[in-house]
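Here is one chain, start to finish.
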Amino acid sequence: MILRLKNLIVVGLWLLATHTAVQAHQQKEAYITLLFNERSSLIEVSHRFSLHDVQHGLKSLLGIQEDLATNSVAQGQLVKYIEESFVLTDDSQNVLKFNLVGHEVDGKYFWVYQERPIPDTASVTVKDTALFETWPSQINYINIEKSAWVRSARLNKETPSKTISLID
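Its structure:
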């Protein structure tokens, strides 16, 4: 009886650990920061994606099989996809175009960097649909840093954009 109880406990713990690992892996998230840099008069944007998630995204969206960590052509296609998925508009709904600064693979993350001059606007609407087609549960977290404050938004497939006031 004791041996059977121990076996049940071991199996239960294994199931719990397996379920937790699967659940942790299912969190599809990206983090995008818009820094309003008053010294340079630029909005500096950094996009951070899990390398694993974007590798699978490239495969399902674009049919790209190459290893994203080492293949510069695949990286370029991913950068283009991320740029097209991210749209920022001013309070008159004018699309604000960004210049690509660069990208990099850093450990288990893929980063894309952009910048543009800070516009004269009281608010911005940020839209980011990256990986929504691949992962229905994808969440893209947006942090806007300006002066001494930070404002955040959670974008998902149902709510892919949000308007954020830039007034202190």
